[in-house]
């Protein structure tokens, strides 16, 4: 099974992406790409996985069009800086299942193949990098879940038939809220690889701890650890896994209390839960409600971590030398991106780089 991953969101390439599917960044460029110095800052804390949101129109300005070579090169350079240091990346398409304001797979001029087209081009760029996962879409909402399941299946099928075998993160609806997972999972559980296998297909959920799960309030009302157990009960018999791709809370006493309770629940829910990622670091300034680290010229790394991040640090796995069970080593991995054990399946590349593996 999957060794747990400890993750952080580095935002910035997504700035300008609105939840209605529109894009407002001037000239198609994000205002604030995430600071490169944060990569080493978090690597030094044993973070082994980075989720890097990016706006759809930043990379592809027209449906079914070619990718923007200049912007792709900028984004890829950032991804490469992480993976060259033997850490893992989730490319998060921050698009809410929409392109130019239209729901993919529902709007007449926005067919399901639009998403498949984008990912077939992006996947071709990263298919040989086993440290990269593909997050199909961030936080879909207000859509027909059955039509959305067909859209996701269309994308999975196209990628696999092109031998793009990276791990795929599968979102549902309701902004992928963890609380709503039991409602949308029945429609999404049949998302499979063309050969019927489940290898490399992992669900993604999000959870903010303020009163309305929006992440707009700095006060937290509960840990919602009970929701973790509910998902375990649903998924364990199906052999499926899930990543908590965004958790968030402010730098307040209530959040410092509840965030570690949720992190501990996720840790204890392994292997159903493969890990979590805190929202957010990246290009946010010190005034952002959920900022996890702020600039500090006197700090050795140039950054000072905030109470919300510090509260969950005890639940970040320490580096280890676990290379998997003997049966995993003999198997050598299954077909779909099983070359990276620290993610979701045992990966040969990790056996060659044991310092990248982690254990709770």
Walk me through this protein's architecture.
The structure is a single chain. The chain is globular. Helix 4 (113-126) packs parallel to helix 5 and helix 7 (225-235) runs parallel beside helix 8 (253-268). It has an 8-stranded parallel β-barrel with strand order 1-2-3-6-7-8-9-10. The protein has a two-stranded antiparallel ribbon with strand order 4-5. The protein contains 11 helices and 14 strands. The chain has helices at residues 37-43, 56-59, 69-83, 113-126, 145-161, 181-188, 225-235, 253-268, 307-312, 326-331, 348-352, and strands at residues 5-11, 49-54, 88-93, 98-99, 102-103, 132-135, 168-170, 201-208, 242-248, 273-282, 293-295, 303-305, 318-319, 358-359. The protein is α/β, with parallel strands linked by helices and 360 residues long. It has one domain (5-318): Alpha-Beta Barrel (TIM Barrel). Strand 9 (242-248), helix 8 and strand 10 form a beta-alpha-beta unit. The chain starts with a strand and ends with a strand. 51% of the residues are buried.
Helix-strand blueprint:
Layout: E1 5-11, H1 37-43, E2 49-54, H2 56-59, H3 69-83, E3 88-93, E4 98-99, E5 102-103, H4 113-126, E6 132-135, H5 145-161, E7 168-170, H6 181-188, E8 201-208, H7 225-235, E9 242-248, H8 253-268, E10 273-282, E11 293-295, E12 303-305, H9 307-312, E13 318-319, H10 326-331, H11 348-352, E14 358-359
